[in-house]
Here is the input.
Amino acid sequence: MSLKEQVVRIAGKFTDSVRIGNGLEQRDLSPVGWWAHDQAVQRLKDSFEAVPTGERVRLAKKTSNLFRGRDTESAGLDASGLGGVVAVDPVENTADVQGMCTYEDLVDVLLPHGLAPTVTPQLKTITLGGAVTGMGVESSSFRNGLPHEAVLEMDVLTGTGEVVTCSPTQNLDLYRGFPNSYGSLGYAVRIKVRVEKVMPFVELRHVRFGDVGKLTEVLALIAEGKAYDGERVDYLDGVVFSLDECYLVLGKGTDETGPVSDYTRDQSYYRSIQHPDGILRDRLTIRDYLWRWDIDWFWCNRAFGAQNPTVRALWPRDLLRSSFYWKIIGWDRKFDIADRLEARAGRPARERVVQDIEVTPQNLPEFLTWFFTTCEIQPVWLCPIRLADGVELLAGTTEVLDSQEATKNPWPLYPLTPGDTWVNVGFWSSVPVDLMGADAPEGAFNREIEEVVSGLGGHKSLYSEAFYSPEKFAELYGGDLPQKLKSVYDPDGRFPGLYEKTVKWH
Here is the structure.
């Protein structure tokens, strides 16, 4: 048996039921249909009813894209059969999707119709329900907003055991309060979403800048104008390697055939962006574009050696994907591998720094300057966000949300405002635990990030570790609205509260 065959065999023992493969295999992904969906929802409700009153519940699932601890003591609900697409309407450009359907499966169902989600988060195993309740951004977010803005109607299993349908015309407070609630109000079992027509290829322009100030200026203009140098821009994100080497990546859908790149081979996608000056062009199929970051987990798989040419030659193509890297992270957490290696080398343990923060363009250069002069983490990802064009404020009658709040933000648990551009900055690495001083508290650098971002009027996503005080958390994430919503939809506390679930120290 060759060394490469041994790698495949060993890896296969650890993949469980997690789908592997980078689109190389043929699979039947026909919609599951309404009858099968109704049966799956009934099983979920039955499993909820079987849990004694007063006990907490959670979805029983094998995978997660959260970088903080998950509650494993509460009773797991039977979510089997809730991981597919129910139906697609290619005339109306809508899809009814089960809450635990991964974006990978959703994309593979939609693309044969020439359709794709309005926003496709970067990692294949993110679920639609997870993105709606926990946020998600990608390079179409400067024109389509966030995943929940495409939701037309949603069925949610609430803490009362009922499945409640919400939309802009019914149960509006749940519809507006569900985004960024992270399962504290319930779990989405069916989501009807708008989808959009896409071209089969994406043409890319990698535009290099010599300073973050100029990059930010151009980014803000493109986010509003949707064009650059006379060409339409359909997709927009960026990568900052240093304060004097940074790039915007501009994508445009096209049906023009021609050669395309494949980054499951020798080169990593993010390295292909780098060039000495000006503009570098590239082309990808639409599917490969949507999953360009999943192949190397942006750039984080370099920690596993997967970007070393020798290792990459042995690494099976099907395992160049985030779901397999999550398995490696699981092994590290179980056996404390990384800290043991650091100790053996005579170095201090490391503090995990996995965050996505948002600041406005006027504050982006200041944040990047602070970040790159304070730590050695590089590169970082940039993704502009604007609430979707043409989305009206949802100021209808609600039980919980008042009209004053509706005038500020249609999604009150997450602080974005209509007409404003925000820039998501993603960085996923670690620093020495003594970076902020030998006597620094646990999570010291993450705490400092929160302080700096808050001082710049920003905030961050809650999928990873957070250290906010209750007062600061309330200031950033809806005040007393999370508890007001919970009193209606989870009055007996069957799910953890939002602060309890997302903040490490409380």
Q: What stands out?
A: The mean pLDDT is 88. The first strand starts at residue 57 and ends at 59. The CA atoms of residues 149 and 388 lie 7 Å apart. Residues 34-49 form the longest helix (16 residues).
